[in-house]
Structure formats: structure tokens, C-alpha cells
């Protein structure tokens, strides 16, 4: 089974008077992974498609043709994949690669078939996928977290010490505009991306997961720096972050998140930092 929900774009003025429920309906994706299903969200922010592929007994393949006006899904798109569940595999145009937890893949445009499988239906793989428009075909590359030297940032004293694993990034592989990575907070730290920033040139999506327990929640901060709002995010839920919005969060316990970006460039450090005294 496959489903895809459309989410449209908003200006900062649009959300000024939104209720909590309206904010959640527009920017929070509450169900990313469903056993035996493909659950996708198409955000009109830079036409990013993201979601979860959770094969159980049968393999799954993303089929999007009429929706995108193409003959096959990746005819004019590139795709990033990170497995956050049990062991599985990906078959790309007939070639199969094993995918354990924390393995990733960059799959270039003009790839005609990508099939997802789980080794154990009772402990299925959870493939988080992210696709954006592409203008050039770059080589497919498998990426393991074991091969990435993390970027260490933040401080324990400010509760934001973390390791950033850059999966789809110029340091690792070529892509047209997709960037994708995996951020792990150190024990005792709870803030991500704080001090915060915006990047008018790129939008972003966050997937929050691997929570400490069922009671853990992340308070995700969004909005213009001088008019912030928040969303309460449960395990394995995702956030759409427009380019004009800050994107930061604080958790009540341990958590991890995957960030995905696309837009005008692939310069990871192209950020507009927000001084703390400008946050309201």
C-alpha cells in the first residue's frame, strides 16, 4: 500500500494566528512509518518528497508517475535513504545491497527501480526516504555511519553537545541539491541546533526518532526569530521547516533526528545565525 499527502507552502504572515491544531496540520507529519506500507508527504516547499517505507512480508517499491508527470519516480529526481529499523536490503535496478540500521544510500536520477525489503518481517527495516528534483545524474553511493567522521559541535554546559553525521554531503558523495544527515545528542544534552539559524536559500525536514522512552517528547521551535512558535513531537514524527523559519528543538529525554535539506545550494554552512537576544 502507498499513500502520499500534499502539503502546501505558507508565508510567515499565514501562520501568525494559527491555533496549535492548525500548526500541527500544516507542519507536523504524525505517521511516517506503517508496517507493510509506504507513507509519503509531498511538500511544495522546494517540492521535497519524504516519508517512510516499511516492508514486512512483501517488498515495496515507490511508484509515482502520474503524480509527478513522468514515466517513473526518479526520472527527474534524486533519492536519499537511511534505515532506522531492522536489517533489510535495497535492490537498485537489479543490484541488491544489504542495509543494516544506520546504513544510508544516495540514488541518482534516472534510476528506474528501487525495491525495499526487510530481513525479518517481525523486526522490519524502516527506510526513511527523501527525494528532491535533480538536473544531473550522479553515481549511486552506499553510505554507512561507520564510514563517516562525525562533526562534533555544541557544549555540555549549554546542553547541546552533539555529533553530526553528514550522509549526503559534498564530503561524502555528489548530489544535485539534496543534503541529508543524522544527528545524535550526547547523554545529558537536550537542545539541537541552538543557537538557532535560518537559511532563506534552503528548506529542511526533520525526522525525530530513537526516543529514550514512550513518554519522551521533543518541543520543536519554528517561526520567524522574533515570533517563535512550537510543536510537541512524538517518536518517529517529522517536521516541515520552511526556509524562513528557525528549526530547533529540546527534548525531555534522549533522542536522535535526521535532517534533510534542498534549495539553492549545497553549502552546509550557509546559515543566517540568530543572536539569542533576537529570539522572542
TrEMBL record:
TM helices/strands, residue ranges: none
Residues the entry annotates as binding Zn(2+): 197, 199, 204, 247
GO molecular function, a single term: zinc ion binding
EC number: 5.3.1.17
Residues in the signal sequence: none
Catalytically driven reaction(s): 5-dehydro-4-deoxy-D-glucuronate = 3-deoxy-D-glycero-2,5-hexodiulosonate
Top-rank taxon: Bacteria
GO BP terms in the entry: D-galacturonate catabolic process; D-glucuronate catabolic process; pectin catabolic process
Pathway the protein contributes to: Glycan metabolism; pectin degradation; 2-dehydro-3-deoxy-D-gluconate from pectin: step 4/5
Named cofactor requirement(s): Zn(2+)
One Pfam family hit: KduI
Keywords associated with the record: Isomerase, Metal-binding, Zinc
Cofactor note: Binds 1 zinc ion per subunit.
First-level EC class: isomerase
Family the UniProt entry places it in: Belongs to the KduI family.
Alphabetical list of NCBIfam families matching this protein: PRK00924.1 (NF002091)
UniProt function note: Catalyzes the isomerization of 5-dehydro-4-deoxy-D-glucuronate to 3-deoxy-D-glycero-2,5-hexodiulosonate.
Record-given protein name: 4-deoxy-L-threo-5-hexosulose-uronate ketol-isomerase
Organism for this UniProt entry: Enterococcus ureilyticus
Lineage: Bacteria, Bacillati, Bacillota, Bacilli, Lactobacillales
Gene: kduI
Amino acid at each position: 500500500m502507498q499513500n502520499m499527502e500534499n502539503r502546501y507552502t505558507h508565508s510567515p504572515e499565514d501562520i501568525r494566528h494559527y491555533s496549535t491544531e492548525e500548526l500541527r496540520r500544516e507542519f507536523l507529519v504524525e505517521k511516517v512509518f506503517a508496517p507493510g506500507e509506504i507513507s509519503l508527504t509531498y511538500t511544495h516547499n522546494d517540492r521535497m518528497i519524504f516519508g517512510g517505507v516499511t516492508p514486512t512480508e512483501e517488498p515495496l517499491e515507490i511508484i509515482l508517475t502520474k503524480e509527478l508527470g513522468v514515466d517513473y519516480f526518479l526520472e527527474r529526481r534524486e533519492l536519499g535513504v537511511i534505515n532506522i529499523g531492522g536489517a533489510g536490503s535495497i535492490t537498485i535496478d537489479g543490484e541488491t545491497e544489504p542495509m543494516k540500521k544506520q546504513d544510508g544510500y544516495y540514488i541518482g536520477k534516472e534510476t528506474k527501480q528501487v525495491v525495499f525489503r526487510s530481513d525479518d518481517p517481525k523486526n522490519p527495516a524502516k527506510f526513511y526516504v527523501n527525494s528532491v528534483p535533480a538536473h544531473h545524474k550522479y553515481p549511486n553511493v552506499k553510505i554507512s555511519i561507520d564510514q563517516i567522521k562525525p562533526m562534533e559541535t555544541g557544549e555540555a554546559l549549554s546542553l547541546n553537545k552533539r555529533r553530526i553525521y553528514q550522509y549526503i554531503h559534498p564530503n561524502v558523495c555528489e548530489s544535485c541539491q539534496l543534503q541529508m544527515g543524522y544527528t545524535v545528542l550526547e547523554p545529558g544534552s537536550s537542545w539541537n541546533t541552538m543557537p538557532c539559524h535560518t537559511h532563506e536559500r534552503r528548506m529542511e525536514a526533520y525526522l525525530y526518532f530513537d526516543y529514550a522512552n514512550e513518554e519522551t517528547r521533543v518541543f520543536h521551535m519554528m517561526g520567524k526569530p522574533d515570533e517563535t512558535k512550537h510543536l510537541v513531537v512524538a517518536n518517529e514524527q517529522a517536521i516541515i521547516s520552511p526556509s524562513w523559519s528557525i528549526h530547533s528543538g529540546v527534548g525531555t529525554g534522549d533522542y536522535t533526528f535526521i535532517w534533510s535539506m534542498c534549495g539553492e545550494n549545497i553549502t552546509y554552512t550557509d546559515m543566517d545565525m540568530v543572536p539569542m537576544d533576537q529570539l522572542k
